[in-house]
Amino acid sequence: MTIICWRQVSSFLLWIVVVIAVTPPLRAQSGSAEPTAHSSIRVGGFADAELHTSSDNAREGLDLAELDLYSSASLSQRWSALAEVVAQRTIHKQTDGEAVFELNLERLYASYSPSDAFTLELGQTHTGIISWNEREHRSRILQTPIDVPAIARRPQDDGVWPLRFIGGWMSGRLPGSLSLGYGAGVGVGPEESAREEAAPLNRGRTPAGLLSLSIAPDALGGLELAIAAYAQHIPAQPAALRERDITLSLNYVGRGTEVRAEWARMTHEVISTPTVYRNTGYYLLVSKRLAGRAARARPYFLLDRLQIAQGEVLLQNVQPESAWATGIRYDLSPHLSMKGEYRSQRAADGGREDLLGLQVGLSF
Question: How far, in Å, are 97, 240, 265 from residue 133 at the CA level?
């Protein structure tokens, strides 16, 4: 395994010092943006910096910094709007330390919500087909491990599942002992040439739809079970595809324990031939907050799998995943966390790659 060089360590420690130093003013800024009788606009965000060392010297993306900014506006008692952008700076070892900067629009929509039982979003939002971090949009600082499972990766991070679309999304949670949640959306999905894009004015725009159901029984506090289905027509080349996705998820958070599991299948049917490609993935996350004086620490274990069908025409450049990770998250404050992690994953050559990771995250 390679050794972390002192230049990398000092650079990462400098990130930590800067983050800690700016925490008070960032909190003050966040506090001043809270809605009051004279203000209905809130600005906030999340930031994180990562350092990895790997047994693969050609590994990309070992040094990473992200900034997730959002602004929400309450237009009236029932109408609101939200905009969110993510800036990411990655240093690629494979390109002699060249820094790559990306800026992506995550969400931009108006929302009408007369009650908890009904909310309507219009604009660019998340499909919610993967429950890990999409509909509830759990940021990297809020999630327990450093990295997300393979099925929940963003498109700009070589993700597979279509996570964004433009259109309308209706959702809500009905009163009752089962706490039934529902969601339905129709709109424009990403193009075959770039899974992250869903521009409504492009000629390659593709119709998409989503349905989801969930229950959170009162008798089993902290438990939620969900199912979601996504459909899209993709005008891929050389032949058009019909995409059908389904996911099943289980989430339990209570008494310091966290269990998250999800299974997903993506089916691509070639419309002009009987050819069918099936891609599957799943993850299992288990963590437990320690007791007493160690209550700020949360050890965890993550199992991560992704299988890509042989000959899959839409995902030719996506690598399958077979990984597990173990680490510990430590909350320095409600707004500042640090995580250390060991991860064993599939290498680009089909062998194994070992990584040691360190992340500092901030919310404001």
Answer: 30, 30, 17
Q: Could you give the C-alpha distances from 223 to 116, 252, 258, in angstroms and in order? A: 19, 4, 10
CATH topology of domain 6-363: Porin (2.40.160)
Domain spans in the chain, listed from the N-terminal domain onward? 6-363
Whether this prediction's pTM lies above 0.85 is answered by: no
Q: How far apart are the first and last CA of the chain?
A: 36
CA–CA distance, 270 with 361 (Å, rounded to integer):
43
Q: For each successive 10 residues of the chain (364 residues), what is the average pLDDT? A: 38 40 37 45 90 73 80 92 89 62 88 96 89 67 88 82 89 95 90 50 71 96 96 81 95 95 95 91 97 96 96 84 97 94 89 92 90
Neighbours of 260 (CB within 10 A): 21
Q: Which residue has the tokens 């680490």?
A: 327
Is 241 exposed, middle or buried (CB count within 10 Å of its CB: 0-12, 13-18, 19+)?
buried
Angle at 66 between CA 106 and CA 339, to 5 degrees: 120
